[in-house]
Write a structure and sequence with these properties.
This protein is α+β, with helices and mostly antiparallel strands. The protein is built from 26 helices and 32 strands. The strands form ten sheets. A four-stranded parallel β-sheet has the order 2-1-24-25, covered by helices on one side. A hairpin with a 4-residue loop joins strand 3 and strand 4. Helix 19 crosses helix 20 and helix 22 runs antiparallel to helix 23. The structure holds one RNA strand.
RNA sequence: GCCGGGAUGGCGGAAUCGGCAGACGCAGAGGACUUAAAAUCCUCCAAUAGGGAACUAUUGUGCGGGUUCAAAUCCCGCUCCCGGCACCA
């Protein structure tokens, strides 16, 4: 035992240090070799190596660690790895400022954060560590890119994309939050660029359907569902004789087709130019398009933005009535949703109504509300009975939707169709510190994938970070210039790197076999996947979590993995709040994990984090709170010290304490299973209190059994102190190799129970009765009570409800 | 606007399947120990009213209704807070 100056306290720093060294010496948390035990894959989102852990990290890793430790003790073979999401902008920006190469600063940051994690006493198996920015990792990120390319899931496309002027790179749709860059909060603008995409939309339906079977928080599932945004409707094709072409629109309301009085194209729609070419409207329409394209996306898509439009002078043929209706260009139509064109049904759509009002376009009512009053000054968007709709008159909207869609299909003018809100994932970035896209552009052969044998496409080590002009890669002529792998002619390398979310979409596969000479060993992946428990923040609800699901489905289709979903169970932890606000440098309310560990130790910090709030809720840091956790651990320590100088005692409380012990084991186990860590800690506190209270009446054996159970149960929560006390008790092996305690179910039932007696639902008194008493016996026992008569005051008993072990309700009148 | 989550003492929270509301901790009050303080150990701690006290009664889980012998929990109607999406046709 490491002794401190004070006999009534243990020296937290010395104890924690000692066991950290000892665990490492023994390689205690190594996965070990395959045996009979069931596997358990416990994963926490790996950090970006910014240089220091923050309190959010401390919380996630504490949560993951307690789960890993509990599973290990309860007989699982646990994979609990850690690594680094090490590509990204901050390192590159630092290089621009200070000239230090991103790789050097990243590796230094990793080294430091690793020591912080060791100080936290986290039970990682470091032999599975991965670093996404090292060639031995990104080589396989590139290999997976090529797999996607081969399967037609990686492609280049020109178009208006989100551009962050501050990061000087493009962003995926998921990475734009309310018009701002997710990372730096700069205003995102549109740029026309040719970029690389992953065809995630091909998987939209499966990504939606498979949400069903996941043990994930409702909140996250809902967010993903909304993000995918499935809409059922119909495609409607309007012929345009003028250019001998067809305008295709998507509508969720084919039942209102007879009410369509015009068609609107997005300004970016490919047909706009041809429609007006060489005609008197050409100049005005082109000016309109040019103006609208300058307007930012946020402004364009804000609901209160004025609807603006211009008539093209051209007409389209209504597919069912044959009427010629005007074709407009309008700012309220999005180019990248549906077909980039809509049919205008002003009587039954708010937006069309406002547009039609402004430009004085005709309205046709074709749906009569079947119950409610129809508003006369706005669109009626509900369902009802069709009118003015030819042979569909009198039909209800729901039926008309499918019948009109069927008719369109029959006439080859469209048909039923499903559209998703989600867009393809833009993965190219005009930055240096990422995995280079393994593509060569050859003037003869075009776009050529780099052959597997030539991977990795290494990041050059002589790049200059000026912060000006193109990406550092594009400025390195000797890196860019290469030869075509197919024809040997001179060619240019692709200078874009991949979005760092690509790196993190598959790291949990790499963990299973970190030195595999393929992205991962399919046998290891088959053994370990899916992840049994994934702990992370809510901020990745539709980013990392969606991308990872997509990757898994592609890998499944390629026959490389046997699961269709990567994360079976998800624990989405809340924020760490300090002084009422989310911690941030700008608010000046940050807390450094270093100083907290130094002051209270990591055991107390862990216990407090787990105790103060359920994991999914926000958690408020409090000095007094952590002190309470610290006091609790010292109290356990002092109790354990008593065992060395035991006084002779009766053992009168042994039976009672055996039951308390069984109850505690049951409670803590159940709470850990359902991730109710705060109540598990509270059960340990109650148990400790109970040991204090009954100590004098316990026998030597009773005390010892009671203490050992306490220490084993405490092991996942306060691993250092638990191991210290365990060894004090004379055990040679670490407490973390101990078996999770069992209990005799018989002991959970007390021989006598206290039952509340209610009169008309109000508790009046309590009786102690034998536990095995059945409902009738209980009722009879209570009716014979003198105290009941006192409360009746002459009223008569109408009914007695007796629930054994709980209460008796006597209904009187 | 749509979708999701939530509201329980002075505070964080508990009540797992409709069955004793407030476990556990923090803060607070008191006692023991001490020359004293800290630390520790023990006790009390929802509100209101009566009483010296034990105790007793009433009220009480955001608000208003309902179902039930019994509601923090289920149903209907609201209020407020947090999060996500939002001109997505």
């Amino acid at each position: 035992m490491v002794r401190s100056e004070r006999p009534d306290r243990y020296d937290v720093k010395a104890v924690e240090k000692r066991w950290q060294i000892e665990w490492e010496r023994q390689d205690l948390y190594s996965v070990g070799s395959v045996d009979e035990r069931p596997k358990f894959y416990c994963l926490e989102q790996f950090p970006y190596p910014s240089g220091h852990l923050h309190m959010g990290h401390v919380r996630v890793y504490t949560l993951g660690d307690i789960i890993a430790r509990y599973r290990r003790m309860s007989g699982h073979r646990v994979l609990h790895p850690m690594g680094w999401d090490a590509f990204g902008l901050p390192a590159e920006n630092a290089a621009i400022k200070s000239g230090v190469s991103p790789r050097i600063s990243t590796l230094a940051n990793i080294a430091y954060m690793k020591t912080q994690m060791r100080q936290m006493g986290l039970s990682f198996d470091w032999s599975h560590e991965v670093t996404t920015s090292e060639p031995e990792y990104y080589r396989y990120t590139q290999e997976l890119f090529l797999l996607f390319y081969e399967r037609g899931l990686a492609y280049q496309k020109a178009g208006a994309v989100n551009w962050c002027p501050s990061c000087e790179t493009v962003l995926a749709n998921e990475q734009v939050e309310e018009g701002l860059c997710w990372r730096c909060e700069a205003k995102v603008v549109k740029r026309d660029l040719t970029q690389w995409y992953f065809r995630i939309t091909d998987y939209a339906q499966r990504l939606l359907e498979d949400l069903e079977g996941l043990d994930w928080p409702q909140e996250i599932v809902t967010q993903q569902r909304n993000w995918i945004g499935r809409s059922v409707g119909a495609e409607v094709r309007f012929a345009v004789p003028l250019i001998d072409d067809v305008i295709s629109v998507f509508s969720t309301r084919p039942d209102t087709l007879y009410g369509a009085t015009y068609v609107v194209l997005a300004p970016e729609h490919p047909l706009v130019e041809r429609l007006v070419e060489g005609r008197k409207e050409e100049e005005a329409v082109k000016n309109f398009v040019a103006e609208e394209r300058v307007v930012s996306d946020i402004e364009r898509t804000a609901e209160n933005t004025d609807k603006r439009g211009i008539f093209t002078g051209a007409y389209a043929e209504h597919p069912l009535t044959g009427a010629m209706i005007p074709i407009w260009v309008g700012n309220y139509v999005l180019s990248d949703y549906g077909t980039g064109a809509v049919m205008g049904v002003p009587a039954h759509d708010h937006r069309d109504y406002r547009f039609a009002q402004k430009y004085d376009l005709p309205m046709r009512r074709v749906v009569a509300a079947d119950h409610a009053d129809q508003p006369s000054d706005e669109a009626y968007t509900g369902g009802g009975i069709l009118m003015e709709s030819d042979r569909f008159n009198g039909m209800d909207s729901d039926q008309a939707k499918s019948e009109i869609a069927a008719l369109l299909a029959q006439k080859n003018r469209g048909g039923p169709r499903i559209t998703y809100r989600m867009r393809d994932w833009l993965i190219s970035r005009q930055r240096f510190w990422g995995a280079p896209i393994p593509i060569v552009h050859c003037s003869e052969c075009g776009t050529v994938p780099v052959p597997l044998a030539q991977l990795p496409v290494l990041l050059p080590d002589h790049a200059k970070f000026t912060g000006r002009g193109q990406s550092p890669l594009a400025q390195l002529a000797d890196w860019v210039e290469t030869t075509c792998p197919q024809c040997g002619h001179r060619a240019r390398r692709e200078t874009d790197t991949m979005d760092t979310f690509v790196d993190s979409s598959w790291y949990y596969y790499r963990y299973t076999s970190p030195s595999s000479t393929s992205p991962f060993d399919p046998k290891q992946a088959a053994y370990w996947m899916a992840v049994d428990e994934y702990v992370g923040g809510k901020e990745h609800a539709v980013l990392h979590l969606l991308y990872s699901r997509f990757f898994t489905k592609v890998l499944y289709d390629a026959g490389l993995v046997s699961v269709v979903e990567p994360f079976r169970r998800l624990l989405s932890q809340g924020m760490v709040v300090y002084r009422g606000k989310k911690m941030s440098k700008s608010k000046g309310n940050t807390l450094s994990p270093e100083s907290i560990m130094a002051e209270w130790g990591s055991d107390a910090t862990r216990v407090f984090i787990l105790f103060a709030a359920p994991p999914e809720k926000d958690f408020e840091w409090s000095e007094q709170g952590v002190e309470g956790a610290y006091r609790f651990l010292q109290r356990v320590y002092r109790l354990a010290q008593r065992s060395v100088r035991m006084t002779v005692a009766s053992g009168g409380a042994d039976d009672l304490m055996a039951r308390v012990r069984a109850r505690t084991v049951h409670k803590v186990t159940d709470d850990l299973e359902r991730r109710s860590f705060n109540t598990a800690v509270s059960a340990l506190m109650e148990y400790t209190n109970s040991l204090y209270q009954n100590w004098e009446e316990m026998s030597t054996e009773g005390r010892r059994a009671g203490l050992e159970t306490l220490v084993v149960l405490l092991a996942p929560f306060a691993p250092h102190l638990a191991d210290e006390l365990w060894h004090d008790f004379g055990h040679e092996q670490s407490v973390h190799l101990a078996v999770w305690p069992n209990y005799d179910a018989v002991l959970l039932v007390d021989p006598e129970v206290e039952v509340a007696v209610q009169i008309n639902g109000k508790v009046r008194f309590k009786v102690v009765v034998p536990a095995e008493l059945n409902a009738d016996g209980l009722a009879a026992r209570v009716l014979a009570e003198d105290r009941l008569r006192d409360h009746l005051n002459g009223r008569s008993v109408a009914k007695v409800i007796a629930i054994p072990g709980r209460l008796v309700n006597v209904v009187v009148r």
